[in-house]
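Hi R.,

As promised on Friday, here is the backbone we talked about, encoded as structure tokens. Could you run it through your design pipeline when you get a chance and send me back a sequence?
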């Protein structure tokens, strides 16, 4: 589901929210949130944004789909200008000028920028120079990262830069992360909140002393599943307050048996149950109702899972996942089930764990996404 999640749908991340909001307001520390897909990273990022955006400029940028330095530059600059426009009346005119800059003739835009002056003129001039091949891609990215700080200094503001799925920027080349390091070290009015879902890449970027470009530059926050008691409490409160409907203890147990504490899934399963309440006029939810809603959820997600299954994994990784869809296993148990030596699958297990597709607990591996595992089991 993602996006802005507000009460009562924002469930049991209050401690993390308080910590991240404090670090943003006080500019005390940049942070990276690390979690698998659908564990609520984006929802937490957007909730931090809504907590502090009346006190500072907040720019949210999804890094997914950024494939070039030009796109990186333009998303960063436009994100800051949107935030500025939301906080300051004249910002709307600046945002309109910036959008014109990307499509109108260079000469006329240089004159328009000169009238504005300041940091807008600076970053716009670099963008125009790139259009005429007077500067290279590194200068373009440097200008993008310098712009939020310069605008904030001119306006007496502070800036929170939120970059979701930060690991996607690896495609911009080896210089991108050292450029972030330079920005974080030098900027006094800007703070960064990042997210990622690749343990391997995030370890390389943040976790290796002497090797990682952003080592000790950010605090690291790992998001796990939400506690089952919080999930049960959310279901009880939501169904009672909105629909005056009860849910039985066996039904609540069935919810967390199926989807655990993965926010995307227990929210989406709840939507299915609410639909049944309205359509069928139910006054109480039982385990059989949860069963029906879960199988409907599987049908709804089948296309997404199928595409993921066919495009994201190698043949051996698919074989490993199919075996593990039956439950957690050690390397030896999985290899025995596949009738191969353990050494044959150790690399696939490692890569799937680094990608957070698998979770390793006490030398046993399980599929992190419980719903994906249920779909695989019946494949």
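Update: got your reply. Pasting your designed sequence below so it's all in one thread:
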């Amino acid at each position: 589901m993602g996006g802005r999640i507000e009460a009562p749908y924002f469930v049991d991340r209050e401690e993390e929210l308080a910590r991240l909001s404090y670090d943003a307001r006080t500019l005390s520390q940049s942070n990276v949130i690390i979690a698998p897909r659908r564990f609520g990273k984006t929802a937490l990022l957007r909730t931090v944004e809504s907590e502090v955006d009346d006190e500072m400029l907040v720019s949210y940028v999804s890094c997914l789909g950024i494939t070039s330095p030009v796109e990186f530059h333009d998303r960063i600059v436009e994100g800051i200008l949107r935030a500025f426009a939301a906080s300051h009346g004249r910002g709307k005119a600046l945002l309109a000028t910036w959008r014109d800059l990307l499509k109108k003739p260079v000469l006329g835009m240089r004159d328009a920028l000169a009238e504005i002056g300041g940091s807008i003129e600076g970053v716009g001039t670099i963008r125009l120079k790139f259009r005429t091949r007077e500067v290279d891609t590194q200068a373009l990215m440097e200008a993008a990262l310098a712009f939020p700080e310069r605008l904030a200094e001119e306006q007496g503001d502070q800036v929170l830069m939120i970059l979701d799925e930060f690991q996607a920027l690896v495609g911009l080349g080896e210089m991108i992360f050292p450029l972030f390091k330079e920005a974080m070290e030098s900027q006094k009015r800007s703070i960064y909140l990042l997210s990622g879902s690749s343990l391997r890449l995030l370890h390389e970027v943040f976790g290796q002393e002497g090797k990682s470009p952003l080592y000790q530059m950010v605090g690291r926050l790992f998001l796990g599943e939400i506690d089952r008691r919080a999930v049960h409490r959310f279901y009880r409160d939501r169904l009672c307050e909105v629909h005056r409907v009860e849910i039985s203890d066996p039904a609540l147990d069935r919810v967390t048996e199926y989807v655990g504490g993965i926010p995307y899934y227990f929210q989406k399963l709840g939507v299915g149950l609410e639909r049944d309440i309205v359509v069928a006029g139910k006054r109480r939810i039982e385990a059989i109702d949860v069963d029906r809603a879960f199988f409907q959820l599987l049908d709804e997600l089948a296309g997404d899972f199928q595409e993921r299954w066919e495009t994201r994994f190698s043949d051996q990784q698919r074989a490993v996942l199919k075996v593990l869809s039956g439950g957690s296993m050690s390397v030896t148990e999985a290899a025995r089930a596949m009738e191969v030596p353990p050494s044959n699958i150790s690399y696939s297990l490692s890569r799937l764990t680094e990608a957070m597709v698998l979770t390793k607990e006490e030398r046993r591996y399980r599929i992190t996404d419980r719903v994906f595992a249920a779909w695989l089991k019946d494949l």
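One thing I noticed while checking it: The mean pLDDT is 91.

Thanks again,
M.
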